[in-house]
Amino acid sequence: MAAESGGTLTFDMNRQLTLLFAAFEALLVVAIGIAIPLVPLTLLWGIHYGLAIDWTVFWRAAVDIWLVGHGTDITVVLDPTVSASLGLAEANTPVTITIALLGFALLTGLLGIRAGRRVAETSHAVLGTLASLATFGAASLVVTFSALHPLANPSLWQGTLLPTLVFAVGLLIGGQVVTAKSRAIGPVRRWVLGWPTHVRTIVATSLRGGAISAAGLLTIASIATMLAIVTSYAEIIRLYESLHTEVLGGVAITLGQLAILPNLIVWTASWLVGPGFAIGTGSTVSPLATSLGPIPAIPVLGALPDGEFAFGFMGLLAPVVVGFIVAAVFGPRIAGELRRRELAIVAVGIGVIAAIIVGLLVWVSAGSAGPGRLQDVGPQPWIVAAWAFVEFSVAAGLGLFTSARPDRAEGGFARR
């Protein structure tokens, strides 16, 4: 009996420690995300404003920035004085901000992966994961509620759900990493192992090929974005100087630009796919033509092209080349298992998965960034996804059929 009581006590203590550890991991992720905008805003409050303004104004601003970073809609009513200085009519008309500053979502996802790995290594991984997720959701609800204000009113349900959803994805990925290292077979994997071999090959190759193709496109977009910023360095510095900000203001602007950097990479990817994107209603930035009206005085936007590219259409080769190379690598591995029509299904599957990934990223990266023309910022998700599907599917089909050696006797492909 004494041994059983001791074992039960140890089990309860381990469970409680796991719950506390998981809750702390979730609270830490929320705290880091909000602290990034809150620290410079608090310094601005103390140094520039001399503590004369209520600090809760800066707290709400930091929370609003964090929530916008996860796609939460915020309804803003501009102050009449500010509207008059900007030349905007109907100052009392609410403006809904729907664009997401993806840098914050990316940070939450990465910290979620770290938390998921740490929680999965405990003795009560499932319980810890649920506790971490519940704690993060409760914290999101509390901070969103604290930011409610007539002049800037975030959506309470979105502020609770969307950051928690991003964190949940990170938790699951982190947990799966630990599971894969331990070579444990979960129920989903056990179910998949029961499929016919050719079905598993089709599904696995489509998922992997599509994900790698989308990642390859984003890698090229990252490099192109970096080159655009480097080559436009002089214009970016000129825009910085035109803002006449002090050191803290410059730091705040730089942090804001880092938050939208993932958006810019996704927009560059849509440019490479073909449709391009918009910076305001009526504007177009695409490989074939660029038409810009008045744009916000954000220094990094100085890297936008200001005219047509003589060889802009060459950007369209990026998704085609990536899709072809990925399929050419997978082709020899699956040629002995699949016939022609099944390879065609794989090509379409790669196009579908890549288009879904690119389309979802485009969808969360675009939206309304302010009043007037700024209600239309970013690419059009459905158009970009449709172009991506066609380009990746065709390129994957060419790559698969080119890399596989036909077997005329069987009408399929020879094993290697």
TrEMBL record:
Pfam families: DUF6350. The keyword Cytoplasm does not apply. Signal peptide: none annotated. InterPro entries: DUF6350. The chain crosses the membrane at residues 19-47, 95-113, 125-148, 160-180, 210-230, 250-273, 310-331, 343-362, 382-401. Keywords: Membrane, Transmembrane, Transmembrane helix. This is Uncharacterized protein. It comes from Rhodoglobus vestalii.
